[in-house]
Amino acid sequence: MKVDEAAIDGAAAPAPRRPVKPDVDDAVLVLRAQDGDPRAFEQLVRRYQQVMFGVAVRILGDRDEAEDVTQNAFIAAWRRLPEFRADAKFSTWMYRIVTNQALNQARGQSRRPRPADRETLEAASGSWVSTTVDADPERHAQRAALLAAVRRALAALPDQLRVCWLLREVHERSYQEVADITEVSLDTARGRIFRARQRLAEEMSAWR
Predict the structure, then answer these.
(1) 76 contacts 33 by C-beta, under 8 angstroms
(2) Neighbouring residues of 55: CB distance < 8 A, sequence distance ≥ 6
(3) Is residue 87 a contact partner of residue 125, using CB atoms and an 8 Å limit?
(4) pLDDT > 50? residue 104
(5) 52 to each of 72, 77, 93, 140, 171, how far by Cα in Å?
(6) Across residues 150-158, what is the average pLDDT?
(7) pLDDT tens-digit profile of 60-77?
(8) Is pLDDT at 43 greater than 90 in this prediction?
(9) Rounded to 5 degrees, what are φ and ψ at 161?
(10) What is the largest CA-CA distance in the chain?
(11) Residue ranges of domains in the chain, CATH in brackets
């Protein structure tokens, strides 16, 4: 997906635009953006928009909704840049904004999110199942039934467990990062990930 950078420009006060090198560190870009340079923030958007879209689409299960959430999250981040602390990681901050907005979107529609892309399914089912298409019709049907069961198991997880599991198992965030993103203690984050793994294993035990 591509975030509409014009929307960010529209939310910004006019400021001189300086060239931005693609390898500039996040912290430098944030400081320049806080100083009113939209190009610096646009570089951060280009750097993280696909990752953040991945978070949103795995929580919501709908690409159109995920695109809207991702764009709105970056606009919100631009407007809230003065609140950003220099000792924090920009990526962690963005994960938190996107995660919260995606969950709010799902809850506002009173429906269960549907995280069901291939990478998520593989992480949930482990190495004992492949999501590749099988030429044999019977085996293909069995695999389709298995993946449907994985989808149901993921969707049945409470929001708190599913989000922590997604951040750890699919997005490969550290336990501390998961705790920071979800704004809970390290022990709480570890506990949620453990319970999510346990519940998925129980739900899928019949398929092993």
Answers:
(1) no
(2) 95, 98, 99, 102, 166, 167, 171
(3) no
(4) yes
(5) 11, 12, 11, 32, 10
(6) 84
(7) 888 899 999 999 999 999
(8) yes
(9) -75, -45
(10) 63
(11) 1-111 (1.10.1740.10), 115-208 (1.10.10.10)
